């Protein structure tokens, strides 16, 4: 082997080593810069993903709202009376009285002492009556309030009574002036409807179900505890009912075919 | 000046009255919403003094009256009265982090219901008055008492309320 060949063999090994080391550093530097680029890209993608998630949530929410509005619209069409659809925008700030604030007022045709109904789980239930009406909003006195009295009737046995808020935390109602003779025909779960008798409330709107029956020995009437048909904690949309025409007032709520004209 | 916080305090209580009518109604516990606006009002009254607290109480009570079914002026009167009473404690009552706030909130709520009961009895009907003293009262008392220390801790974050520390109080 010639000396030059030996020298080449030795130094080419160093040469190779340095090339490898140089390559390693070059790759490391490139990787660092790539890592930085990837980090930026990752941040962008993460931001994009967040936006998509927000959009997806909005879509889900809009779908739910759309379904609910369609359902309400369907119910509004079945409603026997001219009605004004409204959205619940607030409640009583305190706990002493109970009110519901809706987004429709005198400009939309709402007047004082108009009945307010809502639809939940396939039932048209009584919410209350308008108490204070401003231009674009109204205060509704719900039937839960002890100051709200409604002439009522047991749907199956046809006994009449007077319903008002029990003032309990559970949001129950009391039905009084039901004669004791009705004790044997009243069952737990019996439906209570509006009686309609010269009342501001149309006849036949569901109020609630009998939860308990009691009677004091010295009184001539029963005390019924009623669970409202409407779950007030998830009330979002209501219908303010205009004065019913005479023909509608006579018929029962369910199945009547009076022309509906929704407004609002 | 301690009095300089009057407008911010009034606005803060007003904001909580409106919040209680909307967003906070979703946090019902046993069907009752804690009256955070009233608790804030009580605490700030002990710092603002009677006159300022009466004005704050009247204006925020009036807002509550506009949104509720009670007769106009009911809440305004109740809060004006408590503004005067709790304002008398200015410089005399130190609010420690837990015990005094709870006591103040519980007793204040009880007194609020009692005064409302009396007013309803005089100006409304007996039935309406009896309805005031419902189970809501006991639940609200418990809730207001429970939230009182948290409300006070929140108020201490706002400089304009000037809820003092013990050292500052003795200075």
Give a structural overview.
The complex is a heterodimer of chains A (264) and B (171). Chain A folds into two domains: 78 residues; 168 residues, Beta Barrel (Thrombin, subunit H), CATH 2.40.10. Chain A contains two helices and twelve strands, in the order αββββββββββββα. By secondary structure, chain A is of the alpha+beta class. A six-stranded antiparallel beta barrel of chain A has the order 1-2-5-4-3-12. A six-stranded antiparallel β-barrel of chain A has the order 6-7-8-11-10-9. Chain B is mostly helical and 171 residues long. The two termini of chain B are 15 Å apart. Chain B has one domain: Arp2/3 complex 21 kDa subunit ARPC3. The mean pLDDT of chain B is 85. Chain B has eight helices and no strands.
Strand arrangement in the largest pleated sheet of chain A: 1-2-5-4-3-12
Largest sheet of chain A: 6 strands, antiparallel, barrel
Distance between the termini of chain A: 105 Å
Q: What's the rounded overall pLDDT mean of chain A?
A: 82
Percentage of residues assigned to helices of chain A: 25-40%
Name the shape of chain A in a single word. elongated
Structural class of chain A: alpha+beta
Oligomer: heterodimer
Structural class based on helices, strands and sheet pairing of chain B? mainly alpha
Radius of gyration of chain B, CA atoms, in whole angstroms? 15 Å
In total, how many beta strands of chain A?
Answer: 12
Model regions low in confidence, pLDDT < 50 over at least 5 residues of chain A? 248-264
Q: What's the CATH topology name of chain B?
A: Arp2/3 complex 21 kDa subunit ARPC3
Instruction: State the CATH topology of the largest domain in chain A.
Output: Thrombin, subunit H
Average pLDDT figure of chain B: 85
Determine the fraction of residues in helical runs of chain B and give it as a percent range.
over 70%
Unreliable residue stretches of chain B: none
């Amino acid at each position: 082997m010639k000396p030059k060949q030996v020298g080449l063999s030795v130094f080419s090994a160093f040469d190779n080593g340095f090339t490898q080391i140089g390559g390693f550093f070059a790759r490391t530097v490139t990787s660092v810069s790539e890592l930085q680029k990837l980090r930026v890209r990752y941040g962008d993608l993460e931001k994009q993903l967040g936006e998509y998630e927000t959009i997806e949530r909005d879509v889900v929410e809009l779908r739910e709202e759309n379904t609910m509005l369609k359902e309400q619209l369907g119910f509004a069409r079945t409603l026997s009376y001219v009605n004004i659809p409204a959205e619940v925008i607030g409640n009583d700030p305190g706990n002493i009285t109970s009110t519901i604030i809706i987004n429709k007022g005198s400009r939309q045709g709402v007047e004082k002492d108009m009945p307010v109904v809502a639809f939940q789980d396939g039932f048209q239930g009584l919410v209350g009556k308008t108490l204070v009406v401003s231009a674009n909003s109204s205060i509704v006195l719900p039937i839960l309030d002890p100051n709200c009295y409604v002439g009522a009737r047991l749907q199956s046995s046809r006994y009449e009574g007077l319903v008002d808020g029990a003032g309990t935390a559970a949001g129950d109602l009391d039905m009084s002036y039901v004669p004791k003779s009705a004790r044997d025909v009243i069952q737990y779960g019996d439906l209570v409807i509006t009686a309609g008798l010269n009342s501001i409330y149309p006849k036949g709107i569901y109020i609630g179900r009998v939860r308990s029956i009691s009677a004091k020995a010295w009184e001539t009437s029963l005390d019924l505890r009623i669970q409202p048909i409407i779950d007030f904690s998830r009330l979002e949309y209501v219908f303010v009912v205009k004065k019913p025409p005479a023909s509608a007032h006579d018929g029962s709520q369910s199945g009547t075919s009076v022309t509906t004209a929704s407004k609002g | 000046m301690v009095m300089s916080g009057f407008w911010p305090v009034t606005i803060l209580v007003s904001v909580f009255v409106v919040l209680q009518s909307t967003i906070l109604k979703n946090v019902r516990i046993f069907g009752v919403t804690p009256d955070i606006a009233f608790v804030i009002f009580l605490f700030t009254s002990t710092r603002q003094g009677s006159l300022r607290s009466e004005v704050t109480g009247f204006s925020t009570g009036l807002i509550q009256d506009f949104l509720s079914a009670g007769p106009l002026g009911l809440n305004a009167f109740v809060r004006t009265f408590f503004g005067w009473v709790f304002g008398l404690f200015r410089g005399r009552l130190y609010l420690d982090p837990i015990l005094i706030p709870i006591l103040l909130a519980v007793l204040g709520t009880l007194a609020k219901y009692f005064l409302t009961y009396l007013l309803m009895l005089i100006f409304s009907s007996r039935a309406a008055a009896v309805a005031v003293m419902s189970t809501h009262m006991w639940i609200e008392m418990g809730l207001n008492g429970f939230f009182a220390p948290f409300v006070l801790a929140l108020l201490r974050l706002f400089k304009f309320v000037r809820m003092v520390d013990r050292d500052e109080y003795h200075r």
